[in-house]
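On clarity, I found the account of how folds are encoded harder to follow than it need be. Since the whole study asks how a given chain folds, the encoding of that fold should be made plain. For the editor and my fellow referees, an illustration may be useful. An entry of this sort, consisting of the sequence and the corresponding backbone structure tokens, reads as follows:

:::
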Amino acid sequence: MNNDKNVQRIDYGIILTVMLLGLMSVGMIYSTTALMEDAGIRATIMQIAWYGLGAIAVAIIMQFDSEQLWKMTTYLYVIGIVLLVLTLLIYDRTLFDKTGARSWIRLPALGTIQPSEFVKIPFILMLSKIVTRHNNYYTYRDYNSDFKLIGKLTLFALIPILLVQLQNDLGTTLVYLAVFVGIILLSGIKWQILLPAFILVAGAGITLILLVTYNRELLVKMGFGGYQLARIETWLNPYQDTSGSSYQITRVFMAIGSGGIFGKGLGVTDVHIPVRESDMIFSTVGENFGFVGGAILILTYFVLIYHMVKIVYDTKNEFYAYIATGVIMMIAFHVLENIGMSVGLLPMTGIPLPFISQGGSSLLGNMMAIGLLMSMRYHHKSYFFSGDGEEFHSGA
């Protein structure tokens, strides 16, 4: 009987899906770096090692229940802010010269890490704690309480978002914003407040596109970076400079298109694409396995997100529900943006493909998020917050 209960506490749907993505990742990185010989083998082995480290992180994080996570959240958030500030002070100069971003710190033996990938976890936890505490304090919701919640969420979200943007990392900034928006949408704030905000943001986006097209100088005067504006221009007109700013994305189009329906086979990468093994790895999927391979990968992501959404609906713990929402938004936005930019539907932002792209920081951050979801299933007893949002008592 106890064994049956233990089986129910493990979400094998998520475990098996992540394992499948891991196999795909190793295969795609091997295929992408095969021509690099020793360097390619090292890249493949390192990805396997990062997956092993990620599995350990999952096993550790899932041991913490919601009460323990609640108590740790504020401390983790502060540590995260310190890490982001530290990154701005001691960022890796070599990578800055190559990418223009101050996102990486170089550590002895480990190489470079990207702290903003790890800070996503306390960011999600902190916003989830704020909403849960607010909703348990304001049992009657009105416009006043909703605006207070928006103010608190914005304050605590804005600090890490601005610090990441100061690192000149637009892609990661957008991921933080996606998490922020997802939690706000589920927080119970009235649609009469959210709808005008959505219209305002949509209008700002359209205005930005028009200004990039017709009055770029104004955006430069407003403080927008030329590098970021060039990426938007490349998205709008990808074939305007195929030997310069559009070189990478047009090569991605060529690789995916050359794969046809079933692809050329594992290890065949005829089209050269810069940093293909990281942000552009979907082009390897398309070239090696064609439309069918790309569709299978996208379907695998749908299965993973389905299991994540199921956790939100199954849990009776409000804190857990918001955490799961933040994780879903983080993973879903990564997938949407990475594949979207690879096929020309969205601008290039340098966002890796979750669980597939090469990169230890991104992979470990995603595995830590999986650990949070596994914690929800593992600690099957439901907890509810009392009125002050600080104490727990068992629920049915």
